[in-house]
Please model this.
Amino acid sequence: MESRPPDGQALRRSGLCCEGVNVFLADGKAAFQEVFHFHLHVFPRFEGDGSRMDANWGTRARSLLDQEAKAVQSGLAALGSPAAATSMPCDLP
Model:
């Protein structure tokens, strides 16, 4: 059986009351994860509900987005590799 996150169209067709859906995945303490397992939040949304997500919504250079996409693809390809679990591609404090 294939497992995947809920699809917005499927939720809207499910009979649950919502006009839209936001999906939020928290992975790691820095991402505000409090329960350390696959932790996915599904938020039903309604026109004018006043809910908002704040972030730096600035536009990033295409070259940076491409580099980051390659890094994520590399990480996905490395899943299952013992080195993948311990490698850090960036300098963190």
